[in-house]
Every structure is written in C-alpha cells, then in structure tokens.
Amino acid sequence: MTTKIKTLHLDNVIENYTQDMTNKVVLITGTTSGTGFVCAREMAKLGASVVLLNRASERATSAFEKLKEEVPDGTFDAITCDLQDFESVRQAIDQIKAKYDVVDVLCNNAGVMALEDHATKDGYDVQMQTNCISHFLLTKELFSLLKKSDAARVVNHTSGARLGSPLDSKYFGKNGGNLGGNGTDQENESFSGPRWERYHQTKLANCAFTYGLSQKLEQHNISNVKALLAHPGLALTSLQATTAKTGGMDANSPFMSNAQSAEDGALGIIRACADRDAKSGNFYGPTGWTGFPILLPPEDLLLDPANLQVNWEGCEAAVGEFVF
Predict the structure, then answer these.
(1) What's the domain count of the chain?
(2) Does 253 map to a domain?
(3) What letter does residue 233 receive in the DSSP assignment?
(4) According to the model, what pLDDT value does residue 256 have?
(5) What CA–CA distance (Å, rounded) separates 247 from 270?
C-alpha cells in the first residue's frame, strides 16, 4: 500500500481527551515507528519526559532523531531494551532506576505479530516473550517507581486478535520453537494456523495481565496506580511489513486497504496514557477495525478468572514474583 491514509481523529483526542503531562515521566516500548512513535511524539508535545525503550538498531536511532526534530522542545531519553532478551530488559530497568525516582506512565506498546515458531535466547516463544512476559517483567520491576507517582498508569496494548481460544499455559513455558510450527500458506493467508494462534495467545495475555493487575491493585488497596488497556483497530504500521518478511501475511493484501493511519491507531494508548478521566480497567479503542477510540466494555474472555490465573502464574514462573 502506497496511498497515504488520512488521519481523522488525532486532533479531537488530543484536544478533548488528554491532560497536561508536564513533569510526568512516560516510558514507552516500541517507539521506532507506528503507534509507539506517535504516542511518544504526542506525550512529548503534552509536556512529558518520554523514555524510549527499543532494542539497539538504526531504526531506533533514526526514530530518536526524528522525534527530536518533530518536537524540538520535547524531552526524550533513549534506553536500550530488547524485549526478546530478559538480560537486556533487566539492564534497562537498572538504567531507569538510576535515572528516575518516579515513573508516571509505563506504556507496554511494543509487539510482534505472527512470527515463525522460534525460541528466544531465554527459551520462550518469541511472540509471547516480546509481547507479554517482558512487559510483565518491566512492570513488576518498575512497580516501586510507579507507586511513587501521585497517579501512575500501566498501559497494555492488545488487538482484535485477543478473541479466540482461552489461554493455554504451554505458551508461557520454555517451549519456543515447539509450538505448532509455521502453518501453511493457506492458513497464514486466512490469519489462522499455529503462528496466528501464538499471536492470539499474546494479545489475550495482555488483556489478562491488565485485568489481573487491576484486581490485585484493588486487593492491595493501591489506588494511585491504574491498569489500562487499548487496541489500535486495523492500523497501517511496520508490524505488517515485519510479518510479511517471514510469510505471516501479505502487507499489501486487500484486507489492509481497510486500515486506518498509524496516528489514529495510536489513539487508544494515547487516551489510556493521558485521558484525565481514565479509571483502572478502562479499555479504549474503536468498535471495529477503524474509528474513534471509545471506552469499550471488555469481553467475558478478558475477565475469565482462569485466563487471569494462567497469565499471572505463567509470567511469574518465567521472571519471578510480582511484589506489591
């Protein structure tokens, strides 16, 4: 797709559904392009100090420079954080703790989609570790800084792929490379088969993490930290191009002609990060593939106690207990 998609809702959301973010520290994973880049740009425009968490690459360097060009008065800090490597994540956590006393927003935005059946160096499925377990690790290790904020937020990113089968504990274990293979061309073209099931598991896991965290915050009488969820609808970002390289989907398919812009796709997480009226458990996104990011009711699958338990126990088994 080469035609530029018109952005329809960004100005409305920024003007009417955000607050001044001056003096707030906002951490965002996956800001080299797409929704993460847009969120970082808009948080900086609202006055936040924005910490960019990406693995080291030319794309990360280029995005950092582009953000500084687009928001000359913005405050940006780049910290290397490879979500496919727990050691890298822990090193990033150490750097964050050395630099910042408080974290106001942790936006767990980064994600990969429908990748091949591949294990990370830690032994986990590349999609589950990137999209979910490493974000759980970031959140639990930075929770002491989030608790110091007057009004902190943990924002998780899901997608339409959240709907499907319930969570299965095997996807959270050291089973990377042994979770069904790569599927047939026909399966991948129809967004089915094992690689898309692995992706679905991660997107449902992000929901289960949000509602599991929200429940535990309430149980521990922690009212100054909120857990929020968003989805982008169908947005044209580099996510499709990355998947297409390994045969996961066709980034130029007719299906993608229904997409909205990356700016409009980012509006769910922008509302979750900055909406002045946000409450723990709020879920923002369009009602369908595209549209204004409204406050959505979570589907029953997202609140199922069994799913919440599988996610929490699976993540803790991988990276340790979450202490409140």
Answers:
(1) 1
(2) yes
(3) -
(4) 56
(5) 31
